[in-house]
Amino acid sequence: MTTTVKTLASCIFCKIIKGEIPSFKLLETDLSYAFLDIGPLSKGHALIIPKYHAEKMHELPDEYLSEAMPIAKKIALAQGAENYNILQNNGRIAHQHVDHVHFHVIPKPSESDKEGLVVGWPQQTLSKEELAAIFGELKGKL
Fold it and tell me: Residue 111: which region, alpha, beta or left (left: phi > 0; alpha: psi -120 to 50)?
């Protein structure tokens, strides 16, 4: 594995990784950095960021993705929450507010909309033919 480092001087998350901005660091590896979110949706809300600056997940080298879910699992276990969300957004209209790939680990302590992630789910109804066409298109590109 070749570890390439890419940072952006103006990126708040790159500054946190470099120690230029303080954080409540939970865990750090050669490829990842995890810390508490300073604007949490619930107690223990944490972020996992790769130590490689990429705005969207598809731009991130795979080696930096390999640790995200194992770290998320460790944090979720440490949080002790029976219910939680793992969230990763790509782009402004998908609710990404910091242009550096990051994963949220958000405890959901109750059914209330007062803490934890609150999600709308605009489910669509598609015919089998429409699903088959989408499947064929995606499968052909994989």
Answer: alpha
